Amino acid sequence: MATKIYSTSYPENPPEWYWTKGLHDAGITEVESFEFPFDYNKFVGQKSKYNRNLLKLKIDSKGAIYDTSVKEIHFYNYKILTPDISLENRKIIWWLADRLIANDNNFVLEIDLQDFNAYPEDFTFKIKFERIEVVRT
Fold first, then answer.
1. Which tens digit of pLDDT belongs to each residue from 82-123?
2. Which residue of 54, 58, 104, 121 has the lowest C-beta tally within 10 Å?
3. Is the pLDDT of residue 61 over 60?
4. Bridge partners, residue 76, by sequence
5. Is the sign of the CA dihedral 114, 118, 121, 127 positive or negative?
């Protein structure tokens, strides 16, 4: 059996909202996605200024090894880069590691996850987003 190594990597200067201590062993307990109606009265040629959609992850971080303060993560103006993987309609998904890549106008987060009720159990979920809110206790 091959040994799996999960590593977390961060940008040199991580954003203020980022969980630099790590969310290893936190559980994603609920996933919700929203599409916002387009407001033509506000559009001035830069659509990225307005919220188009939202992916909300509810986190149970009390079992996390390092950062136990994260309760929810809200990704605004997101695009899932692994369309064949859905996080919705699952019981609980365990957070193993993540990698954050900061670009000029957006971020890409790659999350190594584990779902014991799915095949394969271990998978990587990738999401690109423009803005994020992290709800903490």
1. 988 888 888 899 999 999 988 888 999 999 999 998 888 999
2. 104
3. yes
4. 54, 131
5. negative
